[in-house]
């Protein structure tokens, strides 16, 4: 039954990503990196990502004529979506690396996943943030944009990984006698849930960063 649920959830997520991808091709975002962010969110948020994209994301399309009436909660949601997409992409890239290499740390593949995926999530998270900051202020230079990206994304990224890694630990040690493998649909369904939880733990951090002026609301 869990396998069936997993395949359904993954199929819905992929379909949501495809729908969003088609729409951002037809209606590109003013901030180029968001053309990648929204489809990634579609993969783990599914229909909810579709709803938020068409309600809030399309307001930032280059051809949009509607007034942007979003409040801070909605803008912070989009900021968190941007952060979560970079983290999720890095985490997803890290999974096959650990699986193919058979890497283990302290005898644990879970710890290897933690280390590899955190590093890649950090790299891609900062990279996504860089491409949000640099195009708006190229005069300040790329080095300054990288520093700003690290400052803006570090706390929110750590908060994301707390939620994600916490769920991964429960999956590994509590929920299954034999944890699912990356070759199984159940594994990636668990990753979808982990990314949603990471988003939820990252939202308060993004709110704090926006309130203190460290990060721009989007």
From TrEMBL:
It holds the Pfam family DUF4396. InterPro entries: DUF4396. Keywords: Membrane, Transmembrane, Transmembrane helix. The chain crosses the membrane at residues 6-24, 36-54, 111-134, 155-175, 187-210. Residues 75-215 form the DUF4396 domain. It comes from the Bacteria. The keyword Manganese does not apply. This is DUF4396 domain-containing protein. It comes from Halobacillus salinus.
């Amino acid at each position: 039954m869990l396998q069936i649920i997993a395949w359904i959830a993954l199929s819905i997520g992929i379909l949501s990503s495809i729908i969003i991808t088609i729409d951002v091709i037809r209606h590109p975002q003013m901030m180029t990196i968001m053309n990648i962010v929204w489809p990634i969110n579609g993969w783990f948020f599914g229909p909810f990502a579709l709803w938020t994209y068409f309600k809030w994301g399309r307001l930032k399309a280059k051809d949009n004529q509607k007034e942007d009436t979003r409040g801070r909660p909605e803008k912070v949601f989009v900021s968190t979506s941007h952060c979560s997409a970079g983290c999720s992409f890095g985490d997803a890239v890290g999974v096959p690396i650990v699986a193919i290499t058979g890497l283990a740390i302290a005898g644990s593949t879970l710890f290897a996943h933690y280390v590899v995926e955190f590093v890649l999530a950090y790299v891609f998270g900062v990279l996504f943030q860089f491409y949000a900051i640099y195009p708006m202020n190229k005069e300040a230079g790329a080095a300054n944009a990288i520093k700003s990206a690290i400052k803006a994304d570090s706390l929110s990224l750590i908060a994301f990984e707390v939620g994600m890694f916490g769920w991964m630990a429960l999956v590994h040690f509590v929920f299954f006698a034999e944890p699912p493998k990356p070759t199984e649909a159940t594994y990636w369904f668990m990753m979808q849930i982990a990314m949603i939880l990471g988003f939820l733990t990252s939202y308060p951090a993004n709110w704090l960063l926006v309130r203190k002026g460290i990060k721009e609301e989007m």
